[in-house]
Amino acid sequence: MASTREPPCLLIAMAHGDDMEFYCGGTVAKFVSEGWRAVLVMFTANMPGADLHNDGKFLEHPPEAVAPAREEEVHAGASELGVDTIVQMGFKDSAYYTGQRVTWLGDPDYNLQHPVGHEPLPAAAGNFRCIQKLQAVLDKHKPEIVITHNFSSGFEHTCVATMVNQAFGQAVRDGTKLGSLWIAAAARHSAWESDVRLFPSPNILIDITDHWTTKLRAIRAHKTQHVESAIPKIEAVARYWGIARQCRYAEPFSMIQDARYR
Ligand SMILES: [Zn+2]
């Protein structure tokens, strides 16, 4: 008799296209291969930075050109990992290239009304209405595991981590059946690599050896992002935690909230 039970949901909440692939791509591929349903919540509209013509020019294209190209890559990477659903929150990035220069939120020429994206992510992070929108996503999917950024891995990542923590906690208090909240403890692109320095002892290590090549394919789906230079570091980190896990490659996480035993 076929089971009518819904597959458990893994929800991945990330700031930018390619964050999921770098921080937890192997884990997503592994859980999907074990029958889980993966939902990606993409926070920013991915406005700044893309080498659109493969000519090395990364910060020369305006958001209206960058965002659609990066959205395609988000879908391509998610599809490599077997992600079932992508929820676009569509918040503005805190900086973007105008075609002439980088403009930052708070600079007079930052266009708050720019048609790409809704309110800027840093503003959304402090806005309860935006956090409620995220809570509604958690209510809908009732994930058994939520994976998000750690609090020190770069400014926009921190905004996402803050929102996810607020929404997760509120959802639990409101009685939504959620599992646990994990933060990705691997390094990628914070200035001091505080990812690995602040979380030297993650309490969850996922063996991703069988999914390593899938993770790499998903990373490389982000063609405009100059990902090759980051791969040796990602491999070294995955090998390091693989040694701890007694396998070839592992991804590290810290579980910071566990709602199953509330
Ligand atoms: Zn990122």
Radius of gyration: 18 Å
What is the CATH top level name? Answer: Alpha Beta
The second-level CATH architecture is 3-Layer(aba) Sandwich
Look at the helices and sheets and give the structural class.
alpha/beta
Shape: globular
Helix content, binned percent = 25-40%
Strands of the widest sheet, in order across it, are 3-2-1-6-7-9-8
Number of helices: 8
**Chain oligomer state:** single chain
Task: Specify the CATH homologous superfamily.
Answer: LmbE-like
As for the CATH topology, it is Rossmann fold
What does it look like?
The protein is α/β, with parallel strands linked by helices and 262 residues long. It has a single domain, classed as LmbE-like (Rossmann fold). Helices cover 39% and strands 19% of the residues. The chain has 8 helices and 9 strands. The chain has helices at 19-33, 63-81, 121-125, 128-141, 155-173, 194-198, 212-220, 231-245; strands spanning 9-14, 37-44, 85-91, 95-97, 102-104, 145-148, 180-184, 204-207, 250-258. It has a 7-stranded mixed β-sheet, with helices on both faces. The protein has a two-stranded antiparallel sheet with strand order 4-5. A hairpin with a 4-residue loop joins β4 (95-97) and β5 (102-104). α1 packs parallel to α2 and α4 (128-141) crosses α5. It binds zinc ion (ZN). Zinc ion (ZN) is lined by residues 15-16, 19, 157.
